[in-house]
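Course assignment 3, question 2. Fill in each field.
Student: A.L.
Task: Predict the tertiary structure for the chain below.
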Amino acid sequence: MNIVITGSSRGIGFAMACEFLKAGCQVSLSGRHDVLADDKQEILKAIGGKYIYIPCNVQDKYSIQKLWDLSTERWGNIDIWINNAGQNTPHKFVWETEENYTVNTINTNIIGMIFGAQVAASGMLKQKHGAIYSMEGLGSNDMIQVKTILYGTTKRALTYFMNALAKELEGSGVIAGRLSPGMMLTDFITKNPDGGASEVVSDENFKRVFNILADRPETVAAFLVPKILSNNKNGKQIAWLTKRKVISRFMMAPLSNRKLL
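Answer field:
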């Protein structure tokens, strides 16, 4: 299968790219930088398989269209498109959040996701097949966490949009779904958007919950990718951190002593 993943130069996007390659897929990775970091290239070379890296700014629809065009030029068609690119704000109350962080979060998480879905749906409808997934996150289930509500708002909008997109695609041969990875140890948590250390990692209550519920992106990707490859149901949510798993981890917390932060 031929796969495109936005925001796949690091984190869960990169981890999924690795798992798709291990499964024998051909993968287009993408990110904001002109080239993929050397350490990431070494990992991909060690795995083997066929892949390309294409710079892409998801806030620009032309850039996303170019990602589609170059990928189809290389692979012939696209079977799975994953909107993974995401942006967060500093851990602040909404009225303290600077305009540039507000705009970038909305433009990446909502507009960029919609642009990706539009480009992928248009191309896949011409192919008469394909699957489009978008990455859920905090807020998708209506949970409110203070100092994270801008990000949560974008993820709630994403869930609505993907559910509605699935309805619009019914009977077309193209399906749409959502990926719910839960909490993960990535730069998204440990760093602010400007690259500095995130204030949230010094919050002892957050660290306690994070160490109980969070996982490394490689663990989550190893679960998600086979489910994505085998799914043919429109409107499906593929979830790693289920309610049952949350309850189990809290019950086992005194014994497990999990520590990621």
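Instructor remarks: The two ends are 36 Å apart (CA to CA). The chain has a mean pLDDT of 93.
Grade: pending
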